[in-house]
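Run log // design_07
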């Protein structure tokens, strides 16, 4: 009898640990279906996603897109964790959030460790230099040991510099540096060139007139697809997100949201629908 009671006691004490193990093994899709909530990881990169420093209210292109997606899926969106480029894939793997919700920013290297949803649109990346700098009449003029390129560690600016302009010197910024730091490095003369997206660049120029300018707006050095980062094994979750993306593309919602942020200058590269919607 004592042995039976001891066995029952051990099983009772072990049960919470087993339950915790099962919860850790729960897929993102099953967790989202159970809770009714998608937990978003996000990068702060205006105008894709911005946070008001006083009210902490979020806004931006991907905030609007993901919130609309949540309504269509009848799921709540929880903006759970701000990310940095160095650890966000590891954080996704360890279940700290369900989906990276601010553009994916895919690269071949990242593609070895994670998966991406279907694309929503594309953005061009171009070089930015001081407003009075007229040295660069062609792209390869940048690729010189005399030129310093400012980059953010692990981000596309660093990839562009190392792949396309390997002869240049590199001024590296930490992974959590905001994109404004790259622009300020050029303005203050610490670097000659910064590679960033035309959307952010245009907003920065509006706030800092006559300080900086883009080169070859119509011939970007790189085109980046915008999508969402999802764990590779989450096929059901990815499928759900892709259906919502396609619906929003075909209904014209993605196009309308982009129009709200680019004004008269059509910077974003759209994914054309199979038929025109009047």
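design_07 sequence
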């Amino acid at each position: 009898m004592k042995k039976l009671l001891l066995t029952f006691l051990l099983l009772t004490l072990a049960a919470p640990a087993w339950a915790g193990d099962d919860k850790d093994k729960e897929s993102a899709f099953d967790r989202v279906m159970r809770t009714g909530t998608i937990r978003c990881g996000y990068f702060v990169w205006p105008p894709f996603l911005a946070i008001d420093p006083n009210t902490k209210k979020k806004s931006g292109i991907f905030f609007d897109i993901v919130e609309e997606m949540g309504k269509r899926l009848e799921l709540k969106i929880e903006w759970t964790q701000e990310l940095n480029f160095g650890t966000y894939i590891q954080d996704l793997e360890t279940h700290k959030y369900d989906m990276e919700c601010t553009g994916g920013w895919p690269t071949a290297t990242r593609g070895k460790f994670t998966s991406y949803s279907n694309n929503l649109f594309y953005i061009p990346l171009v070089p930015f230099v001081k407003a009075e700098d007229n040295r660069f009449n062609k792209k390869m003029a940048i690729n010189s040991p005399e030129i310093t390129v400012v980059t953010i560690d692990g981000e596309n600016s660093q990839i562009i510099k190392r792949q396309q302009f390997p002869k240049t010197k590199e001024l590296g910024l930490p992974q959590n540096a905001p994109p404004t730091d790259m622009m300020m490095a050029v303005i203050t003369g610490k670097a000659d060139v910064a590679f960033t997206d035309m959307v952010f660049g245009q907003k920065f120029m509006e706030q800092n007139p006559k300080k900086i300018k883009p080169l070859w707006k119509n011939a970007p050095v790189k085109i980046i697809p915008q999508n969402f980062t999802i764990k590779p094994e989450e096929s059901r979750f990815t499928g759900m997100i892709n259906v919502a993306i396609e619906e929003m593309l075909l209904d014209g919602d993605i196009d309308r949201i982009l129009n709200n942020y680019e004004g008269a200058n059509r910077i974003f590269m759209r994914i054309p629908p199979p038929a025109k919607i009047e």
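Residues 37-122+224-262 form a domain with the D-Maltodextrin-Binding Protein; domain 2 fold (CATH 3.40.190.10).
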